[in-house]
Amino acid sequence: MTSRTSAPPYSSQPTSGLSRVGFDIYTLYLFTKSDMKTILFPITLFAWYSSPNASLASVANAFFWTWLHLLQFCVSNQVLSPGEDASNKPWRPIPSGRITLDQAATLRWLLLPTCLLLSAMHHLTAVGMIFALGVLLHNEMKLDSHWFTRNVLNALGYAVFDSGATAIAQKGLISALPPTAILAHYLSIGIILTTIHAQDFQDEAGDRVEKRHTIPIVMPHLGRLSMPVGLMLWSIALAFKWSHSLALSLTVLFLGAVVGGRFYFLRTPQSDKASYVLYNVSPFPAALRDFGSSEHAQVWLGLARIAPIH
C-alpha cells in the first residue's frame, strides 16, 4: 500500500476472513481509544442517569450512536494531524501504518453520511447535522486553533452528544425527561464551556508546534488560575444549589479543590496529564446504577454533570 505519510504499511495485516474483520474493527477502535474514557463512557453514563427507566437495549443503542459519531470526529481530526500523532501517539492507525492517509480520508467522508443516516433512523436528523457541522468547523476549518471557538465548539459537542444519546436512551418511555435531567443538560454546557480547557495544559508543547492559540498559551497565568477558581465555583454552586445528595456534594467539593489545586501548583506535562485524568476520565465500570458504586470511579466532570439529577 502507498501512503502520503512516512509510516510504513503495517507488517502483519491479514488478507482475508475473520482475521481481516477483526483487524479492521481494532483499527476503528484505535481511532477512538484516547476519547473513550473522556467522551464515550461519560456521555453514555449521563444518558443513563438522565433516563433512569431506560432499557438496556436503549442504552446500548445510545452507546453505539455516540461511538459512531465520536469515530467521525476522531478520524476527521487525525487525518489532519498525522505528524503530531506520529510524535505523540504513534500507536494510532495512521502513524502505525494500519491504514493509509488516503484510506483514512475516504473513511472520514464515508462516516459523514453514515452518521447522518443513523441519526435519521433515530429521528435525530437535526442533531446529526449540527454535529457534522461542528466537526467541520472544529477540524477542517481549524476553529479549534483559537481558545474561544475551541471552548464553544467543545461545549456544543458535549451538548449534541448528550442530547442525542439521552433521546435514544429515552426512546420508548412514556414519561418525559425529569426537570432535573433537563437542568443537568443546560448546566453541563456551562461547565464544559468554562472548564474544558483543562484538556489543553498537557498538550501545550504540541499546540505551540501546531500554532494553536489555546488558553495555556495565550494566557498562561490566568488560565492556570481559572482552574481552581472555576472548578470550586461550580462545585460550590452544584453542592449548595442543585445537588440533592450530601455524599455527592462533598465528593464534588473535595475533587474540585484537589483537581483545581493540582492544575495551579503542579505544572509539568506529566502532572497536567494526571490532573486531566482526575478532571475527566470515567472508567466504564463506573456506569452502575447505584451511586455508592460509581462515586469512587467517576471523577470531577462526570460527577458535576450528574449532580443536579441526584
Describe this structure in words.
- This protein is mostly helical and 310 residues long.
- It contains 15 helices and no strands.
- It has helices spanning 17-50, 56-79, 82-88, 93-96, 101-121, 125-140, 147-170, 179-195, 204-209, 215-218, 220-242, 246-265, 269-280, 291-294, 300-306.
- The protein is globular, with a radius of gyration of 20 Å.
- The model is unreliable at 1-6 and 282-298 (pLDDT under 50).
What is the number of beta strands?
0
Order of helices and strands: HHHHHHHHHHHHHHH
Strand residue percentage: under 5%
Could you estimate the helical fraction of the residues in percent? over 70%
- Which descriptor suits the 3D outline? globular
**Average pLDDT figure:** 88
State the low-pLDDT regions, or none. Answer: 1-6, 282-298
- Gyration radius over CA: 20 Å
Question: What summary fits the major beta sheet?
Answer: none
Distance between the termini: 53 Å
The number of helical elements comes to: 15
Structural class: mainly alpha
Briefly characterize the structure.
72% of the residues lie in helices and 0% in strands. The chain is built from 15 helices and no strands. Helix 5 runs antiparallel to helix 6 and helix 11 runs antiparallel to helix 12 (246-265).
Output the keywords.
310 residues; mainly alpha; 15 helices; 0% strand; disordered N terminus
